[in-house]
């Protein structure tokens, strides 16, 4: 029952994104026979070290989507305080309202069924521009970002070029 | 007389009938037990039952709730290895600080349907994973990152690298109606994706040229 609902909702979101997607975002199922695994691309926001880059990620949806949020994982090298070294994104919109691992998030910031793939990707995009120093997922990156902005920019730009094969 | 014969006939009937009934009952349960145990085990050998994989997924979620930095694959492999004990898995993560990654490389581009992954994992020999390459997971980044291929290779865009800016303009834009069929949608999605990658690459190259010109 919820599986069918999830399928329907995901197809709807996919079609909406194909029809009109926000600037700098591309997302869709890897293969439409399985709507629960998506690939997406996020463009690096301008005026940040990520500028010009395009960062691929996967979204894995739970069978009870949209009751619970998908998991997002970058499939490229990332150097960002809120992205774990394995690529998993740590951002409040991807936390279900029930669990609050860091005990500081507002319920309104967290996942709810009125959110969407589009909103997740926009949130992640702004997270790239403005890391959240309260939830460090990559301690290395957090330190460098806090203490040495120049080195942080250099590392980020390096990642951006690597993804594009430059 | 009748008082003498009736107890004897009663006693033979009383001894015989319950015994036969008990035998039948025991026989019936043994029979059922055999079928009950052999049936699910033979089907479970072929594929993990949905209940099991759901339970495994729940356990993975519990562990990942505590240790989000450990990948789901590693947690699942560990749970399969230790017979689904959350305690052992937690203990292992706390003492080592990590879990060895399962040997199957996680290639992100063609993600197989989850059912296949679940079916494939248990068949992977578990022995090899017991000895973790301690350095690889501790230093983390190097091993994980090296397995990513760049987007040009991943989506096979080498033959489109020489295209000019025109292709980005000519390509189907983000607006309009969504294609009606599955294959058209896939095509539209792929062309959007590829155009975005190529445009970004051109932009960085352009930025490089500007930077080179200034210096």
Automatic annotation (TrEMBL), chain A:
Could you say which EC number(s) this protein's record lists? 2.3.2.23
Name the coiled-coil region(s). Answer: none
Q: Which InterPro entries match?
A: Ub_conjugating_enzyme, UBC, UBQ-conjugating_AS, UBQ-conjugating_enzyme/RWD
Q: What is the lineage of its organism?
A: Eukaryota, Fungi, Dikarya, Ascomycota, Pezizomycotina
- Which reaction is recorded as catalysed by this protein? S-ubiquitinyl-[E1 ubiquitin-activating enzyme]-L-cysteine + [E2 ubiquitin-conjugating enzyme]-L-cysteine = [E1 ubiquitin-activating enzyme]-L-cysteine + S-ubiquitinyl-[E2 ubiquitin-conjugating enzyme]-L-cysteine
Protein name per the record: Ubiquitin-conjugating enzyme E2 2
What GO biological process, any one, is recorded here? Answer: ERAD pathway
PROSITE patterns given in the database record: UBC_1, UBC_2
Q: Quick one: signal sequence residues?
A: none
Organism whose genome encodes this protein: Morchella conica CCBAS932
Q: Which family does it belong to?
A: Belongs to the ubiquitin-conjugating enzyme family.
TrEMBL record, chain B:
- Pfam families noted in UniProt: CUE
Please give the residue ranges the record annotates as the region Disordered.
123-142, 165-195
Q: Enumerate the UniProt keywords alphabetically.
A: Membrane, Transmembrane, Transmembrane helix
Q: Which domain of life is it from?
A: Eukaryota
Record-given protein name: CUE domain-containing protein
Q: Which residues cross the membrane?
A: 12-31
The parts of the chain that form a coiled coil are: none
Q: Where is the composition biased (Basic and acidic residues)?
A: 182-195
The UniProt GO MF terms for this protein read: ubiquitin binding
**Any idea where the CUE domain is?**
55-98
